[in-house]
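Q: My labmate handed me this sequence with no annotations at all. I'd like to see what the chain might look like in three dimensions before we decide whether it's worth expressing. Could you predict it?
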Amino acid sequence: MRRSLTVSVALAVPLSLAAVPAEAVSPAKAQVSRGAEQRLKTRITLTMPDRLIVGDQVAISGRLDWQSPDGVWAPLAGKELDLRFDKATGGDWHTIATPTTDANGRYSVPVTISANGAWNVDFANDPVNLPDDYYTYESSYAVTKVRQVAYRTSVSGFNAGPEPAARDRNVTAYGTVMRRMADGRWAPATAFGNVVLQFSTDGKTWRNRDVQSMGGDGGFAFHVPAERDGYWRAVVPQSGRTEQSTGGADYVNVKYRTHLHRYNASPEPVKKGAYITVKGLLYRYMPGGKPGPGANIHIYFRPKGSSTWTKKAITKTARNGWFSRKFKASRDGTWLARYWGSGTYIGSNHPSDYVDVR
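A: Here is what I predict for the chain of 358 residues:
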């Protein structure tokens, strides 16, 4: 249920019943001159929503009443009011609207929320510029305390990676929290609260993995262990300064790392027409290093002076994880072995090995 705040203050000066007949219940029959000391009492209320969101248009409303000499309160219609706002930081009271009460003494003003501050509505509080009939009444006002506002937020540029991520390494998730300003622009939410990182295996049921404060530019960056495949997203929770928002989800596949160990192309140098042996050992980290049997290893060659790699062969690793393949030496160049990975393992390649052919 949405709640509203209502405040009311009435300023009154004792009224002599001899000055106004008891049967006089109409303001028109109770008018006195500007210099008269006795005036009719009034009261006014101010109502606005409990939660104020920057950029939203809300209604500030209330009612103006007057009290007859016999103590009866009744609506005061057709009277102009002064609605003012005072910004909490570096502000000063200024008029933002001058609503007029309707036949039931009520008023309602649409205002756009822009900043923390206090609100005030008053009646008959201008000693110089009011029409003569306004001096029939005592002034009255209603004022709020300083009201804190919240901002609508959004998560921009969210990304989780690397993709795929190594099971014994971290997933890094980063982005920027934006807030909507009063004029509709979106700007970084500078150090404006917390961001929660959430994870889900199915994109439906989410659990919190970490929480941190926004940076000075609204940015955030999480580093959390990569445990399994799944979706990542960032959430800005609702607080006194922020409305909740949820960024888009990013799926990250998690695999075991691999490494080509003890790789070598030899002999070096080699006679032209002789054979070069390319060999190495494939390790899979699950999480410890274990030989990777039955894996396809792609062998590439790049001639000296060229920038183009040519695939020369595909060979499989043995049960002990080793691979070995012979090639006839024809020219100087660099040999590279690469494992492209699988649904379970991340690919890897070893630094290339140059062989001089003479």
